[in-house]
Design brief:
4-stranded mixed sheet; 14 strands; alpha+beta; rod-shaped; 6-stranded mixed sheet
Amino acid sequence: MDDRFSRGQLGFEQAYCCTSFSKSKKSELECGDKIVMPESALHALMARNIPHPYMFQIKPYYNPGHVSHCGISEFTADEGFIKVPDWMMENLNLQEGELVLVESALLPTGNFLKLQPHSTKFIQLLNPKAVLEKTLRRFSCLSTGDTIMVTHDNQKFYINVLETKPGPAICLIETDCEVDFAAPLDYKEPEKPEKVKENAPEKVEEEETEEQIKFRPFTGKGRRLDGESVDGKVANSKTQENNAPTTSGSSGGSGAVSASTTSVGGKKSGKLVFGSNGLERLSDDSRNDFKLQERKEQKSQAFTGKKHVLGSL
């Protein structure tokens, strides 16, 4: 590589053209963060006494936006080129053959990692924790903001790196790192059951009220033991009261006095005649009314039969 692309005196910093593993025969390195560098890079690292294991910071040369970190797999690439995983090229928004800047880095040992799967299918695996642990063994470091790829059973799962501690980039070699998961990007909370409407008890009370109105027990007409209705009894008493003759006196002396007595306490009204031969002195119409009233009273007498003792039958 031309010396004009080499920078720094103490650390290693070199510019290379990058190509993806999908364009080479190194597809087995796709799941991980390892890159392939030329042999000259190894000599430069050893000459500067860069400590092992080697870890690097990688970023676009002309448009240094997002920065990622990676480890080294081998030094077998062509001079002036490096090979990187496809997911890393996507994170850095790189095109095939684009120039990148590679710089040696010393990263702290990680103790915390927060990840977010893109799909709920990943957490629905039989043992997603074991799958993740197996994948992270292929990584030497991780950076906040990276999107790594996990392969399992011929499936690809993408996972965002939301947070790393104790720094924005950490080393994963020989460390016991706590891993936390955020809800997947496509996760949807289950719908809550609809609450019972507050007006429902009122409706129940209204229905009960309507039923009570519809059902009225003992609403029939009352009947006496002789079969006549109670209403008819009151009506007859009022009719008799209105039709009763008033007190009349003749010039001949003792006259017939007819008095109409109103019913008290619901008892039936009747006629009283004072004086001898009072019945004869009544007019024909009054006499007929009086006889008709007596017949009705005889008919309306309840429990008027003869009594018998069981032994005398």
